[in-house]
Specification:
The chain has about 475 residues and is an alpha+beta fold. It has 16 helices and 6 strands. The chain has a 6-stranded antiparallel β-sheet with strand order 2-1-6-5-4-3. A hairpin with a 5-residue loop joins strand 1 and strand 2. Helix 2 (about 20-75) packs parallel to helix 6 and helix 5 packs parallel to helix 6 (about 240-285). The longest helix is centred in the first third of the chain and has 56 residues, at about 20-75. The termini are far apart. About 35% of the residues are buried.
Length: about 475
């Protein structure tokens, strides 16, 4: 028996069998590399899928809530033309919006992006799965007429009372298409890396130890979100090819991250586009303030340029200007368009628009950066403003600029009850409030700018925006 066992341990010719180092490395490293690649691929796939789904839900909730905010007053005033315009413009704002519907408390469709649906009862879907409730907006994955959609339903509230419901539907195919594209890219990169890893594990330990350490460091950089540095390729053998393919996989992953970042920027532009429409709609409610937000944006950015703001900050300033009066969408027309002085209750109602604007921006995480500016654009330098009584450096610099330009544009705009001031007269009025309502530094810079290029006389700034 002892002899038999000994023979089994020997190869042909009686030589002792011992697996080579390549086989040892293959048996030891290949499963580890396989698990490493698969875990990275699965983790990245889950992260990207989750990010795409989350961004789609955030976008749908934001659009649905904006439609609900915009429809409230028109619904109560039975302004069907405004409701039809709202549904049509919202539907045309993005290719993956399949329909927009506004219905009353009896579930009858009052306005729909498809004209033939108006007046019908809003039907239940063939199948639905809840995706969650975000504030008061419900998101569901539904099937209607054999088409898969993601629907968002938001109650239309006015003075705390539900007066209707706004619904939008986004195509599920846009979500699935983005997910499939990401999964294919990661799967191809992972497959290539696994194939090269099988060859790389067959080389000698002395040649593989250093590259494996470098690969491990590269994976840690990717997983830890650190800046990835391509791994130097030390040769043209399998290890060099493995390193090159790992760099390609890393580039693919980083490219997908950049695509997600671009997608997020596109989403923000979509949100900004929606708010641009709303801001223009607010200005259009009063023909005497038409173009107000655009003028405030242009003049504010001109002042920002003189103050040395970089391009990115100027873009943020412009968007904040466009958003600054978005809260007035909740202000009733009888107050917003009143031709005489407001009563105390009406004035208090008007003072709520900074808070209302902040509430509207809260539903979109990527627009949260503008909330402090929108909320503070009626604060005074000496602390006598509203809504929080902030003063001096407590007030964001963008809010201080908007407050200054907002007052200038208001004074130089003709109203039914008074003629607009000239730029010189408006400047004198602003200087009178230097150090009380307005920052002395910003006031001085603004006055110099107006004196060099008087906007009221030349018309250079009127109706323009960056």
């Amino acid at each position: 028996m002892r002899y038999t066992i000994q023979k089994l341990r020997e190869g042909p010719g009686g030589r002792r069998f011992s697996p080579g180092i390549r086989l040892k490395l293959a048996l030891f490293l290949l499963p580890l590399v396989f698990l490493l690649v698969v875990s990275v691929a699965v983790t990245v796939t889950r992260i990207t899928d989750s990010a795409i789904r989350r961004d789609l839900l955030q976008r749908g909730v934001a659009i649905s809530r904006v439609v609900a905010f915009s429809a409230g007053y028109s619904l109560l005033s039975e302004d069907r033309l405004a409701l039809d315009s709202l549904t049509a413009e919202t539907r045309n704002s993005a290719s993956d919006i399949e329909f927009v519907a506004i219905r009353d408390t009896e579930n009858i469709i009052l306005a729909h992006s498809r004209v033939d649906e108006r007046g019908k009862r809003y039907g239940s879907p063939d199948r639905s799965t809840s995706l969650g409730t975000f504030l008061e907006t419900e998101a569901e994955e539904v099937s209607r007429d054999g088409r898969e959609r993601i629907e968002f339903t938001t109650p239309i509230l006015f003075a705390g009372k539900r007066v209707g419901t706004a619904s939008i539907a986004l195509s599920k195919e846009s979500l699935l298409s983005a997910q499939r594209s990401v999964e294919r890219s990661i799967a191809v990169a992972a497959s290539v890396l696994l194939g090269i890893a099988l060859l790389g594990t067959l080389v000698l330990a002395s040649l593989i130890t250093t590259p494996v350490k470098k690969l491990s460091r590269g994976v840690n950089e990717l997983a830890g979100g650190e800046a990835f540095h391509p791994i130097p390729v030390s040769g043209g053998d399998e290890l060099g090819e493995l390193t090159r393919n790992f760099n390609r996989m890393a580039e693919t992953i980083l490219s997908q991250q950049n695509r997600l970042s671009k997608y997020a920027n596109e989403l923000e532009e979509a949100y900004v586009g929606m708010v641009r429409v709303i801001a223009a709609s607010i200005d259009a409610r009063d023909p005497y303030t038409a173009g107000h937000s655009a003028r405030v944006a242009h003049i504010s950015c001109k002042l920002g340029q003189r103050l040395g703001f970089p391009t990115e900050e100027l873009e943020h300033l412009e968007k904040a200007c466009l958003f600054h009066d978005v809260g007035k969408i909740r202000t009733p027309d009888d107050i917003l368009l009143k031709k005489h002085s407001l009563s105390s209750p009406e004035f208090e109602e008007m003072r709520t628009h900074p808070d209302d604007g902040a509430d509207i921006l809260k539903v979109v995480p990527s627009l949260h950066r503008y909330i402090p500016v929108v909320r503070a654009h009626h604060e005074w330098y000496n602390g006598n403003g509203y809504p929080d009584g902030k003063r001096d450096s407590e007030i964001p610099i963008h809010a201080q600029i908007i407050a200054l330009v907002d007052a200038f544009d208001a004074m130089t705009t003709t109203r039914p009850y008074r003629k607009g001031l000239s730029s010189g007269e408006a400047v004198k009025e602003i200087l009178r409030f230097r150090g009380t309502q307005f920052s002395p530094m910003l006031t001085d810079a603004f006055v110099r700018m107006v004196e060099e290029t008087p906007p009221a006389e030349t018309g250079e700034w009127k109706g323009m925006a960056l």
